[in-house]
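Quick one, T. Sequence first:
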Amino acid sequence: MTARQWGGILVTGALLAAGSGPTRAQAPRTVQDGVYTDAQAARGQALYVKQCASCHGDTLKGAQAPPLVGDAFVAAWQTMPLGGLVSKVRNTMPADAPGQLTPPQSADIVAHLLKTGGFPAGRAELASADAALSQIGWPQRPAAPRAAGAVKAYPPLGNMAQLMRGVFFPNSNLIFTVQTRDPAVPPPPPTPEQQKQGFSVFDWGQGIYGGWETIDNAAIAIADASPLMLMPGIRCENGRMAPINDPDWIKFTEQMIEVARKTYRASQSRSQEAVSEATGDLSDACAACHQAYREVRVRGQALDPTDPSNKANRCMSR
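Structure tokens:
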């Protein structure tokens, strides 16, 4: 649904509220109400070209990073006040040098995003103060009716890269450590120097759920999280929809589930050798999917994994 269509729904709702009597509280402002000026958006556009376009694209439709216009963008932010978006820009952007934008500059960039997204300009500039921004929301799309007895579906919070880094990467590495360390063998006591430094969150967690239980949990996490790769609405790091209906994507997801279950069964045997052997299958399953959907190779050139432009073509079968 376009910004204009949302605006029509919002106006209709406002008229109905107005007719219900003076005791009805006034609805909060939304970005449909003209919360920035054209001059501010122009300043924001100049900043965007310098700070943001290389990742999000000249037209804000995404490149190495997700798009900043469109239904998916609005849906990702519409449950939060506009201050959440301004804070995101101010504190985490640009990704290679976060924190260099001032609060007014961040508000200017968001004004440019709103203008490009089709939301109207107004007479007053978008403020940069958190208190003012917390009073501005987004137009809400009408909720679809739920069938009786239907299980509520939740949209994904993160993208595919975050899912990989948060679940698959750390848990796979826990399993790979079995190649060189028997989980049944207690870890050596910390040295005096290590005791002075304290312990990390990883030391704390594995100190409670350690040994083979750590490997059990890692395999379970991978097996049970793998279906999330087929979750409707999940996107890749560059903003492209994950190809959840591709036969190969489905095949690789099912392979990961089976390999993780196999690894869990091997872990249940409490055999370092059995789990070490299973790590080969786990590595192969990861590599097969990466080669098809993640790694970007140019004919005649070696792959450069540090090149951020590789993100632009991810989730495209090759």
